[in-house]
Each structure stands twice: as C-alpha cells, then as structure tokens.
Amino acid sequence: MAQEQTTYDYDAIGPGYYDEVFRRNAGVQSKWHHLKFAHVRRQLPAGCARLLDIGCGPGTFIGTLPEDMECIGTDLAAAQIEYANSEYGTPQHRFVCVKEGALPFEDASFDAVTLIELVEHLPRPAIEGLLREARRVLRPGGKLILTTPNYASLWPLLEKIVNAKAPVTYENQHISFFTPGRLRALLASLEFDRPRVVTFQGAAPFAAALGWKLADRFQIIENPVLGPALGFLLLGTAFKA
Length: 241
Hints:
241 residues, Rossmann fold, seven-stranded mixed sheet, globular
C-alpha cells in the first residue's frame, strides 16, 4: 500500500494556501474542494453536536459548518492552526496543534470524527494508531468519516497532471495508496461497526469550467452511480459500536 516513505515538511505549505483556493469560488480546483466538503457534510449524523476534524489544515471545512455546532480541528502544522484560528476561530470552532501520538481528548466525547484527505499522507502504523484514537474519542454510535484518493481510478493520472502544473504537488506527500477494498479492510480490521466505502468526485468538479452551479447539480446526479473505478476519491464511513 505504501511506497518508500520520505518525511515531508508540511510547514513548507503556505498557511492558508488551500483555503485561498477554496475562497476563489471559481475554477475547477476551487470547485473540487467545495464539492468534497459538501459531500462530507452530507455524511454527518443527524443531530451531530460535537465534531473533531483531524488534519484540519487551514480550517476551511469547519468554517463551512453551522456556528452552533461545537467543532475542534487538529493539525500538526502550527502555522496552519494559527491561520485557522485567525480566520475561522470562534467560541464554538476551535483549532489545536496536535503532534503525533494520543489525541488530547476524553474517551467517547465526539459525535463524529472526520479525516479529509489525510490518511494518504501517513504510513500504515500511523494510520492505524490515528484511527484507533478516533474510535476511542467517538461516542457509542458515533460516526467516522474519511476521504482519500482512489488509486483504483484514474487518480494516479490526475495526480501526475497536478504535480506538473500546481505550485503544491503530491509527489512526496502521498505515501499510502488506497483502493475501495483496501480501505474497507482497514476499517474492518480496527473493529469499526458497519464499515462502508464508496467512490465520489468524478466529472463534477470539471463541470465548473462550464458553470459553477452546474457542477453542483452534476455531483448530485453522478455520485450515486459512480462505479468503483470512476470516482477519484473514496468515502469511508463506519461507526463505533
């Protein structure tokens, strides 16, 4: 699942870089993040009152959530956390720098835990440890939601294009490569209940080149019918028994 692993300096990514992309509200790259976050929001459990977003980066996802939902974002990059607190911090939306190891939260204290395009950046032992921690802090019946690139799709080709054209590349960032079966097996091996993996994010983001709102409609239509090899991203969900 993983190639030879190198340590990537995530402090090298400018604070707020991906948030600035999101805020453009124009173009395929910006729409990619809008559609991704919208799809994750639709997975939040009904009545979700307390959420933990691990690997929150500049805080953009939490910034899209209701102000009355208590949300905590964590990231290992201190500069990103400083940016997140500056741009999105409120009494209910807080951001904390957390390095490797145990999460500094009590057992069974969150209704949902999200990891949005994070696990591909980590080696397998770190992924397993982090998911065990996510399970620990979830309340019984709480929901885990994660996304990651689908390496059974045309994602590797898309990644090469991004690496050639974008100022921030994935060449040394992505070290763990998931397919639907691999991700489902991982969740099942960690004793999560009802693990489920589906694909999403196919052609919809690219429809933004023709119209911003057209891409929204396209996503709603295409996501239910995307086959295992067609969605660029995987959505993994599971519950704590």
